[in-house]
Amino acid sequence: MGTIGVDIRAIHIVDKHAGVAINDFVVELPPDQTADSLVSVCHSIEGVKVEWVAAHPTGGNLQSDLETASQMAAQPRKAARILAEAAPPLFGAAWALLLNIAEEPAVIFGTAEAPEPGSAALAELGPYDSAHLVVMSDGWFSEGDAGSAAVVPLIGQQVLVVARPGPRFREPELVRLTHLATLVG
């Protein structure tokens, strides 16, 4: 990546198994390069495959887990919402929903790109009593793409749903989100 002037801003190890590592890179491209040129450079390396490319605004508010945890600790009454707002950039996701499941599941907060699902759509995300991954049907994302979500229960009859089109969420990401979720409450 350095051969075309890419500035690597962050690397997250997403998963490792059977001699394969899946990494999430946050990079800044120089003005004379495109995402296609970045993918070409990566594919020129034997054994490297690019699963997904997404654009973030220049200087976007990409936060680390520790910054998010610090904000949650400083404002415990707002911790669930802070985590919901931070989760999309933390996990390369499109959106997050915060649900109240005291009775029938209902959305109490959604990030800017989040859909407004009805009760039938929300039922696809259950069960709500344990952290799990969900393959989502078409229609959850503005482009009509299929995707996946991490669903994590929080204290106080709340559940956090973090979703993205493209590459599916993986178990290590679910574990990471679950650890952050323990700080809510």
Quick structural summary:
This protein has 185 residues and is of the alpha+beta class. 26% of the residues lie in helices and 28% in strands. The termini are far apart.
Number of strands: 7
Give the number of domains: 2
The level of helicity is 25-40%
| Name given to the CATH homologous superfamily of the largest domain | GAF domain
Approximate strand percentage: 25-35%
Distance between termini? Answer: 42 Å
- Sheet having the most strands: 5 strands, antiparallel
Q: How do the helices and strands follow one another from N- to C-terminus?
A: EEHHHEEHEEEH
CATH-defined architecture of the largest domain: 2-Layer Sandwich
- Give the structural class: alpha+beta
CATH topology of the largest domain: Beta-Lactamase
State the name of the first-level CATH class of the largest domain: Alpha Beta
Low-confidence stretches: none
Helix count, DSSP H or I runs of 4 or more residues = 5
In which order are the strands of the major sheet placed? 4-3-7-6-5
Verbal overview:
- The N and C termini lie far apart (42 Å).
- It is globular and about 55 Å long.
- It has two domains: 2-43, no CATH class; 65-181, 2-Layer Sandwich (Beta-Lactamase), CATH 3.30.450.
- A five-stranded antiparallel sheet has the order 4-3-7-6-5, covered by helices on one side. A two-stranded antiparallel ribbon has the order 1-2.
- The protein has helices at residues 35-43, 65-74, 79-91, 119-123, 171-181, and strands spanning 7-17, 20-28, 95-100, 106-110, 132-136, 147-154, 158-165.
- The chain is of the alpha+beta class.
